[in-house]
Amino acid sequence: MTSRIWNFSAGPAVLPEPVLEEARENLLSLGDTGVGICEHSHRGKPFVAVAEEAESLCREIAGIPDNYRVLFLQGGASFQFAMIPMNFLNKDQTADYLVTGSWSKKAVKEAKLFGNVNTACSSEDANFNYIPTQIAYSDQPRYVHYTSNNTIYGTQFSGEPEGLPGGATLICDASSDIFSRPIDVSRYGMIYAGAQKNLGPSGVTLVIIRDDLLESGCTELTSMLQYRTHSGAGSMYNTPPTFGIYLMMLVFRWIRDNGGLTGMAERNGQKAALLYDYLQSSSLFSATAEENSRSKMNVTFVTGNADIDAKFIADAAEQGFNALKGHRSVGGMRASIYNAFPLEGVDALIQFMKDFEANA
Ligand SMILES: *Cc1c(COP(=O)(O)O)cnc(C)c1O
Question: Quick one: 123 and 248 in the same domain?
Fold first, then answer.
């Protein structure tokens, strides 16, 4: 078998190896059914058991209260940018958006098609290299939307945004840091995430949504666009992304068996600290995000010289460090070190960076 290399891809991203190995076994036959995971009917007992375990593990890991639904949808996080205002915002209402990167901006763009948007804060003035602390909420926002981790810019909220107006419904795009640390779901109306960063393959989107918010959604939309349709049908109104749900179930087992969200947070904290500490001490590389806004998932850094950046990325690729090129809007490098990225890979990268720096 071809050996695996260190994969720093921002998404789709590295998955836990035991998950991939188990999936490989079950591609030909799910358990002893004689039928592969992708070949089972979504209505049959074997797959229904998978979907039920995925939901119950998700609830267990995140401590999801009973008055929340767990949905497995399609269309990625980007589809949620539209589905949220479609369901919850009308033209007489205002929703507050915290704009901390291009994903937030895309969410705003969709919301404006349905109602008013108050940009409660924005860090665009500094190319999104920080998380704003001054937030100007509107009086009674229909909901408040934020992006907990900014995949492209390497910034992350350290917790929920402060100072929400009383009773405001908080909605979070957690695509790139979901289940990377403990979360108090009861503080949210809804949390959503495309799976391909921390939870599984692309093609399935996890939505955790409170009952009363779900029920308040617009009833004049086509069935597929209403959350209640998917909730009422246990995410099986139409054929769900069965393989994605299966892989997510395996990832949830892996999270549970590796200390749950507390265990994830510990490992992620350790990995990020190693890398940022090195960047701090380096005279060649420096982190692009402001110190108190730095992401534990996506570490963005530069040398300050585009040619040296390019040489670093090329040399790194040759040595088996994959996908370190930063997003074009930031330049430089980005090391995505999600839940499944091993500590040894961070150690190896730091050693490589030290060697590169010594020879620069
Ligand atoms: C990757 C990403 C998205 C886009 O997800 P899709 O599933 O491709 O639509 C949205 N928000 C954040 C924070 C992301 O990291």
Answer: yes
- Helix ranges, 283-342 (H): 306-318
CA of 297 relative to ligand 1 center, distance in Å: 14
How many Å apart are CA 20 and CA 1, to the nearest integer?
14
Alpha-carbon span 71 to 343, nearest angstrom: 31
Q: Cβ(200) to ligand 1 under 6 A? A: no
Q: Do 243 and 284 belong to one domain? A: no
Rounded CA gap, 78 and 148, in Å?
15
User: For residue 325, what are the domain limits?
Assistant: 259-359
- Helix residue ranges, H only, 166-282: 211-215, 227-232, 242-257, 260-281
CA-to-CA distance for 316 and 333, rounded, in angstroms?
11
What digits encode the pLDDT tens for the residues 37-95? 999 999 999 999 999 999 999 999 999 999 999 999 999 999 999 999 999 999 999 99
pLDDT over 80 at 240, yes or no: yes
Q: Active-site residues: which are they?
A: 103, 173, 197
Instruction: Determine if ligand 1 sits within 6 Å of the CB of residue 175.
Output: yes
Edge-first strand order for the sheet with 298-302 is: 286-287, 298-302, 333-336
